[in-house]
Amino acid sequence: ETGVTQTPRHLVMGMTNKKSLKCEQHLGHNAMYWYKQSAKKPLELMFVYSLEERVENNSVPSRFSPECPNSSHLFLHLHTLQPEDSALYLCASSQDGGPENTDTQYFGPGTRLTVL
Amino acid sequence: GENVEQHPSTLSVQEGDSAVIKCTYSDSASNYFPWYKQELGKGPQLIIDIRSNVGEKKDQRIAVTLNKTAKHFSLHITETQPEDSAVYFCAAVNDYKLSFGAGTTVTVRA
Fold first, then answer.
1. Which residues 33-52 of B have a C-beta within 8 angstroms of A?
2. Is-cis flag, bond preceding A83, omega within 30?
3. Are A94 and A103 in contact (CB under 8 A)?
4. Widest CA span of chain A, in angstroms?
5. Where are the beta strands (DSSP E) in chain B?
6. pLDDT (tens digit, 9 = 90+) per residue, A88-97?
7. d(CA B44, CA A24)
8. Is A110 exposed, middle or buried (0-12, 13-18, 19+ CB in 10 A)?
9. Residues of B with CB below 8 A from A6's CB?
10. Residue in B31, B41, B89 closest to A102 by CB
11. What pLDDT band is residue A1 in, cutting at 50, 70 and 90?
12. A vs B: CB pairs below 8 A
């Protein structure tokens, strides 16, 4: 256990559905991250939040909408997704997401998303 | 942006032998280099890391070396065991961002 939990672990949705992924960290960290992991591709950073403010949006399509209500919780709201969005979505947290961040990032187990 | 290349993509070793994975990075401003191990159905787990002011770090059977001049770093696993079978990722950190290599699937044969 890394102290980062994600729900649901598996999700199947149609292209017209709206769903949300949830991440919670129990480490007292100030920064949280969303990554996308597709087969045979490096992990891709999607969003970074530091002290509940978004500090990075890595050119992610607007059908992915993050929300960070507090430093312990992070959501990824999904709507009108495409089949190519099927992937493992990983959440991570670190002590500080500030500039020149060299803090260790701790990952959750991921949500396996399938878009039909 | 940072570009991290990782080789090999797959590695099969006999139990007890050593495994070496190599990574190169492009941005000389990167200053932190973690290695992650990902087992099936789990998220990546940090196994060792090295910062730019250090050339080598060891933790039991795992060691990492860093050559900042050449911009490459390597993971060495000695006396491999079946539980070392997993996907290993190198990464470089520069300005918030963790840029990952594509991963190496390591299989330890009994």
1. 34, 36, 41-46, 49, 51
2. no
3. yes
4. 39
5. 4-7, 10-14, 19-25, 32-38, 45-51, 56-59, 62-67, 72-77, 86-94, 97-100, 104-109
6. 999 999 987 6
7. 16
8. buried
9. 43
10. B31
11. low
12. 60
CB contact under 8 A, A99 and B96: yes
Q: For A4-54, what is each residue's pLDDT tens digit?
A: 999 999 999 998 889 999 999 999 999 999 999 998 788 898 999 988 788
User: For tokens 């969303």, what's the residue?
Assistant: A34
Rounded-to-integer distance, Cα A81 and Cα A49, Å: 23
Asked if A99 and B102 come within 8 Å (Cβ–Cβ), the reply is: no
Among the partner-chain residues B93, B96, B102, the one whose CB lies closest to the CB of A56 is B96
Instruction: Calculate the alpha carbon distances from B56 to B52, B60, B71, B73, B106 in Å.
Output: 10, 13, 14, 9, 22
What token pair was written down for A14? 């149609």
Token couple for A92: 């991570």
